[in-house]
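RETRY 2/3 - previous attempt timed out on the joint model. Re-submitting the same 628-residue input unchanged.
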Amino acid sequence: MSQSTPDTNIDVASLVEDVNLARIGQYVLVILFIGFFLAPLETGIMTALKTNEAVARTIPLAPPTGEGFTWGNLQFALEQLSGAFFNSLFMAIPATIGSVLFGSMAAYGLTMVRWRGQMAFLILFLVGIFLPYQAVLVPLARFWNNIFPLASMLAPTFETLPYLQDYHSNLVPLIITHIAYGIPICTILFRSYYQSLPSSLVEAAKIDGASVSKIYRRIVLPISKPMFGVVFIYQFTQIYNEFLFAFTLITGSDTPEAVVTLILPAVGASTSGIDFGIRMSAAFLAAIPTLIIYVAFAEQFAKGLRTGGG
Amino acid sequence: MDTHETAEATTTPTEEVDWETKLRYFLNSDFVRSSPFWGIPFLVMGVAVYGGMGFNIAISLTDARGLTPPDYSPGNLDLEMYTQVLGSNAFLQATQNNLVLLVTFTTICLVLGLFLAVLIDQGIRYDDKVQTIYLLPMSLSFVVTAQLWLWMFNNNNGLLNIIVTAFGFQPVDWIGNPSIALGSIIFALIWQFSGYTMVVYLAGLRSLPDDQFEAARVDGASTAKTYLRIIIPQLKESSVSAAVVLMVFALKAFTFLYALTGRYRPPNGTDILATLMVRQAFKFGKWAYAATIATYLMVLALGVIAPYLYYQYRQGSL
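RETRY 2/3 succeeded.
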């Protein structure tokens, strides 16, 4: 586009040149930052596909070549993680559906229908978003282990269910926990959407004599489909990626009910150190579900993040 | 329907209104009619969040540790743990690290995010694709990104040391050296979060009317000046909400640090309140002690959230 020319007198041409230089500078910066954001991912993928010998010999950014290429790491990591994938999805899908439905209901009750004192309830929901989960970890552990051991109560039932083992019952407290702590963020996400809807919609239905629940089912649910997409994507990513609750409620990374995030920090570790080929393979496999969702629905994810916060 | 409710509320009990009418009004009010919708989620959430917080404070007043259940008899409840925690060096060190993390992480994320947002807002081609790439780390679990950075930080073959040695410097022990480990971790967290601040700022930038920029240009202001004097001051709201999210995250950050080592103890020199709390609870079984740290953490988080919510409320943007 622009050719570099030696300094000349100020004229229109050099002004155009100036603008172009700024443009080029912008693109250089954009590309540099693309490198910055992708470099850790790139080194990870490349390392996942290399033999140990190639990992030690080549630079991490370079793709594996010839002898240095292997599927072995990925295969090994997949074996380690396959059970955990089932556990993660078995936990994350119902937990997401639950918190999204509750969030939509709460947002409807707090937004579309007006009553005094809503603000106080809203603030209580908002604080729930920002609560550091450390503040409830000890109670959670006590509640699910000592006060209300739901997992061991459900274990015999789970044994009789198809595709499930008794240990999968340990995921039920985790599901309930995720639903409960996911409600505030889902509520706020839905609320921001319901607020943007014209109030005439609900008013008209009210004048026609529709009840509060009828308005929800017939009017609000159908028009909030796009928002359900946003909240579902956001919340699924959060729950699938979550670590702290799983860490608190599931006893260890070597238990059969452990979720993916719980196992990952231990994969490929041995007394001689970490096998990074295996560890990177496992990291990628663990990230695949959320990566697919992100690449397919980047706009929705960004929207959820913008309204909801990290 | 609104009017029904107001009417109900303003009737004073002394007035002899038929109680059946009152009850009927009340049951017909939107408050009651909509209560199953917000009430059930509120109950579930309330028990979990506020019940949990209360339970945590109750445990922190006991001396519970190990396998013996907490003893809630009045004689046993005191603030002893709170003074004990405040007097411990580990707690003070963790608080200090946490504040360093909070301030540097939040500041750099905001500045970098704003820079990226302005950069993308210059009419770059494929800006949505670029935005998707910049935001990509946010879609990954901290457990995953910790593994990626563990490899980046690796002493022998990590990319960072390859870059450093290519420039002729000695290889750096990024997370083994206590004096730079916290910096390394902040760097990795900035990598993950600056896409988020960018998205927040970008939304703010794009909601501003274009003509301001044009007007400034007509007045002869340079691009840099226009941004500094006119555009950025208007992004105050974006800055505040992003800063709150980042600060609260910095307070509760645990997963990334844990996943770096896979152990309760994070790399030397990076122990923060969240890691200290989890370690005291689940490694040593010092329940009351850990609950006390958690309460301090909660107070710090509320110290960030409360002014923010008040500010939002005053602005009428809640």
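The first strand of chain A starts at residue 269 and ends at 270. Closing ticket.
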